[in-house]
Fold these 2 entries.
Entry 1:
Amino acid sequence: MKDIFLKVISENLTNDVKKINIPTYIIWGSKDAILDVSLTKKYKSLIKNSIVRIVWGAGHHPHKDKPEEFLFILKECLNAK
């Protein structure tokens, strides 16, 4: 199982991410120990019309770690024009 997990998290998604062509919110936990928060910069540069929002103090599951902050960002996203 560990080998599968390591393969999944090391997969290069650059080509797939470049294909996203709709407005996109990139929501990330500041304390994500699986995928470093520095990746948000890379994804922001690859996805046109994207916005990065950080859930401060959250880990890899910001919707579970900080649900109120996550929902605030989600509502912001849904209300964006």
Note: Residues 67-79 form the longest helix (13 residues).
Entry 2:
Amino acid sequence: MSFDEIELTQRLVQTPGLSGAEGDVADRVEDAMDALGFRSVFREELGNVVGFVGPQAETTALLFDAHMDVVPVAGEWRMDPFGGEIVDGRLYGRGSTDMKGALAAAICGAAAAAKSGRLSRQVAVSATVLEETLEGAALGAVVESVKPEQVVICEPSNLTIKLGQKGRAEILLTVAGIPAHAAFPARGKNPILLAAKGLAALDKIELPKDPFIGDAILVATDIISDPYPSISLIPPQVTVRFDRRTLPGETEEVILDQILNVLKRIDDRAFSLAVTRDRVRAYTGKAIEAPRLFVAWKVDKDIPLVKAAEAGVIAAGLAPEFGSWGFCTNGSETAGKRKIPTIGLGPGIEGDAHIADESISVEEIKKAKIVYEHLVLKLATK
């Protein structure tokens, strides 16, 4: 079986794989790695697929990571979401940008570097699960077994070298009231009114800023009473969900205290906060549980990984550019939590992820394969 990075992208796009249902995509990835001559390919208990090139070793010089799962198809599509059709130089389909084009380029780039016969260090490519659900949680299992010294997160960056990203915390604010009949509201304490005052105060909160990563963000994403619906009853409590985009160095304690200090000025007993936890099941049946607290990170521009990425981008005929991601990625696990030197670098425009008629430039997938091949040759040869 012979194919290139474009054909592989098409095959992957033509294989749907929502979070928790990536098994068929994993089959395609395994087949591709085997066909392209990866030395060893395995699937661990969560269903992540990992393939190696280069001589076997205890540690891995470089790990490329790309997730297999995609978000659901939504909106009005002109193209078949799972067709993988190429029109005017763009490959269409759900997951084309986020991030099956990058996964195909990483597999093919690593395989091309291995064919040179020059590798003196082990290199791995991971196709991970559940990233759209719990960023980084599944990649942790790969890191434990692969032991990478450096990591490339292949999320779309338009082949800009990403030196960091914002983190993400999902926070539940519980507002306690005193229930009462709706005909006699003075007998109770309405948590809805308290929540409204709290939201107004938090809208004015001063959040930290980072000159490179950008501004931290706090935004309410849903609100619900308990019980719901609360008919003829002032409810005993209301819960508000927040999405908090975090910056490097911010801890859970700092984030929660900052919000609580504002709310206690309204009522020193009514408000309580907690970071949410989720338990999700992988397609293998194995469950994973983790807090929705994904760490922000940034790396120094002068580290060897960044220098190698610059050389790879130049080899692909591009001028190196640098930036950071405003969204969260699996890099929260490698760089944020484990402090492993990590960059982001992938084909595709960030804003094209998750949209109707999602698509990616065919030419950019080809350039990404060249960049990844040169990264391997730069960091895994003598």
Note: The mean pLDDT is 96.
